[in-house]
Amino acid sequence: MKQISILLALLPALAWADFKLSSADVPAETTVAEKHVYVGYGCNGGNQSPALQWSGVPEGTKSLALVVHDPDAPVAGGWYHWVVYDLPSTVNSLPTNAGSSVGDKLPKGARSGRTSFEGNNFGGPCPPVGHGRHRYNFTLYALKVPKLAIEQDTPPAEAERRIRAASVAHTGFTVYYAR
């Protein structure tokens, strides 16, 4: 009986094993290129969000959400670099610089949430000098709702809490940056 319970507990994970997020611009486990690094706070990168693609979205997914987070930032809760939600479930990629302040490269209906930079667009890595190598977690959530009740000024940690509450699966990868 215990084995059946374990198998039943693993079924959702097995069903979503094909749900994958990747990027040709920032391959998993690599260092972020300068064109994606923030402009400001002493950083002089290009501040372009990387191109992303995904596959294996779980059947029944109503929408998607993306969160880019630095858990190593020296602030409580880490630092949110990008929050995008209400991505149509039929979309399977975002082009380079989809997170620009103009927002014209996001799919129709998608919205950018507030980040720790106090804006609603992508902000690249820019850890404090000498603080060591930071992790940047790109997480894509499959959601059971077509739209989230998140205002554009909702703090990013609260937005992610609501995203997680509506999530049926998630996938992601980690990249690194230090200065």
TrEMBL record:
Residues 1-17 form the signal peptide. It holds the Pfam family PBP. GO terms for molecular function: protein kinase inhibitor activity. The keyword Signal applies. Residues 98-122 are annotated as: Disordered. InterPro entries: PEBP, PEBP-like_sf, YbhB_YbcL/LppC-like. Keywords: Protein kinase inhibitor, Signal. PANTHER family: PEBP (PHOSPHATIDYLETHANOLAMINE-BINDING PROTEIN) FAMILY PROTEIN (PTHR30289:SF1), UNCHARACTERIZED PROTEIN YBCL-RELATED (PTHR30289). This is YbhB/YbcL family Raf kinase inhibitor-like protein. It comes from Chitiniphilus purpureus.
